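Annotated sample (chain length 252).
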Amino acid sequence: MGPLIVSDIITQNTNFFLAFIIGIGFGFVLESSGFSSSRKLAGVFYGYDTVVLKVFFTAAIVAMLGLLFMSLFNWIDLDMVYINPTYLWSTIIGGAIMDADKMIVEAEKLAAISPNFVIKIQCVEPAFKAISALAKKNIRVNCTLIFSAMQALQAMRSGAFYISPFIGWKEANAEDINQFVEAISIIRDNFGFETEIIVAAVRNARQIVDAAVVGADIVTAGLPVYQAGFDHPYTQKGIQTFCDYWDKTKYE
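Output written by the structure step:
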């Protein structure tokens, strides 16, 4: 609100008061909407939740439109608004390098706690550099959130100990999941990768069987999914039929 002060539209004290009220209101809205949730924030970095990004981009657009609106009414002098210059390529390259380095440092800390630990890293481009570096140090990595065979190929080439292709979300989006997992299994066998395939987000017993048929090593599913797979209506019908025949059998 600096330009408003300089233009004598508001006083310094009024500026502090408005900033205080707006800050509290903004924080209250974010907290009430669940934006401080660790799951939602993690979702931004894992790439499956874009709500936070949408809100902040919307806020930026509203701020720009607000500045233009106030400029039209001479409430604000845009020449007094400082805009940081954008260095796009250096930001992209530097971010990719730093992200991989941060992944490596954090993974080494976690791996040092126990030799049984496997480090889970999301399947993004900087992760492949981190996976390769960690594999050379015998630190096992599970490359997760894989949704294409190409992602799986690069993760296996980088030395991932496990890869986790997610099938539940893909099937819900009407995508073929059998060919997806089968392609990954074939690629692994063709090139002799030692990576184990963990089929994730399994929703029913049929998906467990399909994963086993195409060569997956492990599946992750909730206990109710397994329990539902242990039962079958014909098994119950058969048991009842056997019992009925037994009850009709005459014996001394």
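Annotation: The chain has two domains: 2-83, 94-230.
Annotation: The chain has a mean pLDDT of 85.
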